[in-house]
Each structure stands twice: as C-alpha cells, then as structure tokens.
Recover the amino acids of this structure.
C-alpha cells in the first residue's frame, strides 16, 4: 500500500494548553483507522487538522508526499471529506443539499446518482424533496454522509458520526462506509467512543492527554 498521510511531530497548542503533542503517524491508502481516547484527548482536533479546518502549531502533515499547506483548499477537500458529528445541513430540502456538490463543480445535478446513493443508506426517493426540518437526526446524518460521497472522495474523516443514532441506523451507516472502504478504496479515519466500533476496528489508535498510544 502507498502512504497517504504522514504526520511528523505534529502538535497543536492554544494559549491555555497543549492539545496535541508530537503525534507521529503514517496512514496508508485504503486503511480503515479508528481513533479513540478519553474526552478532551485531542481526537477531534487531530481530525480537524487533517481536514484543514485547523492548522497545526508544530510539526508537519503530508498528504500524498506533499505538505497539506501546499494544496488548494478546494481541491484538497474534494479528496479529503470531513463529516461532522452533528449533521450540518443547509437550505430547505434534501435536494438543496445533494445538488450542492454539483453546483460547486459547475455540473448538472445527477438525480439518478443521488437517488441511488440515498437508497444505499435506506432512504427512498420520496426523501429527495423532503424539507430538512422533517428529517430525524438519523436521516439528517445519512443525508450529510450522502452529500459527502456523491463524488467519491479518497478519504472520509468521520468525527463521531454515529453518536446518538439508534442501533438500526448505526448498522446502516457502518455498512455504507465499510462498503466505500472495501469496494471503492475510500480511506476511512474515524473518531469514536462507541465500544462496538472500537472492538471491531481494523486499525485502532488511542490518544491520551494529546499523546498517541499505538498498541502492539
């Protein structure tokens, strides 16, 4: 496998405290990496740095052998897609959200593609024009996930995306993202507290007080 990310002595600090301390980590293309650890250990901060939502205060992060800072942010985020813990939908309807990735690429909306991917997360065609105010929390999370993958990214950064979902919806989301990893070579990097996700993780790392523990 080729190296996709290489983090070297990565750190992040505020005026109050150090949040990440000398993180050294290599992530291969096609990996499915789970990051766990206590609340406040820096997990989401690490994910946001990888998403370029934050910039490290020390060390270096390479993506495909180039510093992340050298990439055009728009181009980078087409390849490295960040999924928020709380689904961030906008506009009035599901259609508004799913047409957005096409609009920013100056492409015509592919309605059939949108319907196909919605069906993969068990949302029927009647949902395409549904007001977002009528969606449940689990439906919102699935719509947000679909929006992120209508154009298949190379990487999905998943920030506790199953928190608060019922067991059935979690199973749907797990099946969907595992399919992306196994059949579309999407690299998964997921932050979680979920014991089932931790137990079944392919590749697990733990952050404690901003420092990385890699199990033998």
């Amino acid at each position: 496998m080729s190296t996709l990310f290489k983090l070297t002595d990565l750190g992040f600090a505020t005026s109050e405290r150090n949040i990440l301390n000398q993180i050294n980590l290599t992530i291969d293309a096609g990996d499915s990496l789970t990051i766990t650890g206590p609340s406040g250990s820096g997990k989401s901060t690490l994910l946001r740095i990888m998403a370029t939502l934050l910039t490290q205060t020390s060390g270096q992060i390479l993506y495909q052998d180039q510093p992340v800072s050298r990439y055009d942010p728009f181009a980078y985020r087409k390849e490295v897609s960040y999924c928020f813990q709380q689904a961030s939908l906008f506009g009035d309807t599901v259609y508004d959200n799913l047409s957005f990735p096409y609009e920013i690429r100056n492409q015509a909306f592919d309605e059939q593609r949108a319907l196909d991917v919605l069906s993969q997360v068990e949302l029927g065609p009647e949902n395409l024009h549904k007001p977002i105010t009528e969606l449940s929390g689990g439906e919102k999370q699935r719509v947000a996930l679909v929006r992120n993958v209508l154009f298949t990214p190379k990487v999905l950064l998943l920030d506790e995306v199953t928190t608060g979902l019922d067991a059935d919806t979690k199973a749907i989301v797990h099946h969907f993202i595992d399919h992306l990893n196994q059949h579309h070579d999407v690299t998964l990097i997921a932050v979680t507290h979920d014991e089932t996700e931790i137990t079944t993780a392919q590749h697990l790392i733990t952050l404690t007080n901003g420092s990385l523990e890699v199990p033998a």
